[in-house]
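Margin note: ligand = nicotinamide-adenine-dinucleotide.
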Amino acid sequence: MRGAVLNSIEDARLVIRDDVAVVGPGADEVLIGIRAAGVCHSDLSARTGGLPLPMPGILGHEASGEVVAVGDGVTDLAPGDHVIASWLPPCGTCAPCRHGQPYLCFTHMVASYASPRFLVGGAPAYGMAGCGAFAEQMVVPRSGAVKIAADVPFEIAALVGCGVMTGVGAVINTARIEPGSTVAVVGCGGVGISAIQGARLAGAAAIVAVDINEAKRELARRFGATHAVHPDGLAALGREITGGDGVDYAFEVVGLPQTIRAAWKAARRGGTVVIVGAGRADQTVEFTPSELLFDGKRLLPSLYGSADVRRDYHRLLDLWRAGRLDLAGMITQRVTLEQVNEALDALGQGDVIRQVIDFG
Ligand code: NAD
Ligand code: ZN
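Resulting structure:
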């Protein structure tokens, strides 16, 4: 089958190969035929080495498709079922799973980085975050495939698999904002636009879209932003619309030290700063001990929208069906697998929100 393979960070390009094969499905695993895959900034970060991935690697982790085959012990999925793939499938037994935090379970992800689920030209290759959706098929653990209704378009379903779950979940699961809250969202890509939509759903009174890209600031208004500003103007605007205090909730959806600081600065004393952006492990962001205590701000990490995907994918699709979540409007470009490098290059540029690879 075809797949987009990253051989090394130095290459900085994925190579489209037609000699890719899957390993499995073994017991408790599912083979998915990919029908649509979104292009997320985390894929770009994996291509540049900002997020870890064993090589050779197959990127792609925001995907939907059809079950092709199931391994021994999988009784509740069958070939032909439509599914969304989860890049953090819960194992059910680790400490976070036992504490009701399935979005922190790394068991299957770590396993996928230890035992390759692909072969490229007969040699072992690894899928990103337990997935590897930039290929025609991939194998995931049973809990990494969530069955959905067959009438949901695959490209809509794909977005739910990462960007939408992450952005909306950051607002409704992680921060649990109150109606009437004032909100700033720093970074208005696919994930940030989803956070803006989440804030609108949750009844925010003011939603400030913050982006260096003017086109993105304008687009953000379509999805619920009440104000839009360049990062340089954020602190002033935040104070202006809150009578000098700063916003109740600031969501950082870029993954840079300076945008984390910008979100911190935008939040009022006693407000909440939510980290959604996936920054590099070799960068640091500084806080003084004094501000950490005396500003009284809460700093909340939000991995995968603090989701339980078995519940939350369906919640999001129900909101989409009810016309309260605009997912079609977030798909700004459709591309082929052969165009994946150009799609990664285009992230953050122009009017790109989400590009979806159509596998037909
Ligand atoms: P994207 O590239 O589509 O969007 C990023 C946006 O940030 C762009 O609009 C860009 O113009 C803007 N931006 C860049 N630098 C900026 C700056 N200095 N100030 C303000 N805006 C700036 O990315 P995306 O797919 O929406 O992903 C956003 C982030 O979320 C990435 O770091 C990604 O890895 C991360 N992510 C995290 C999770 C999670 O579980 N927490 C899941 C998915 C993605
Ligand atoms: Zn993602």
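The first strand starts at residue 3 and ends at 6.
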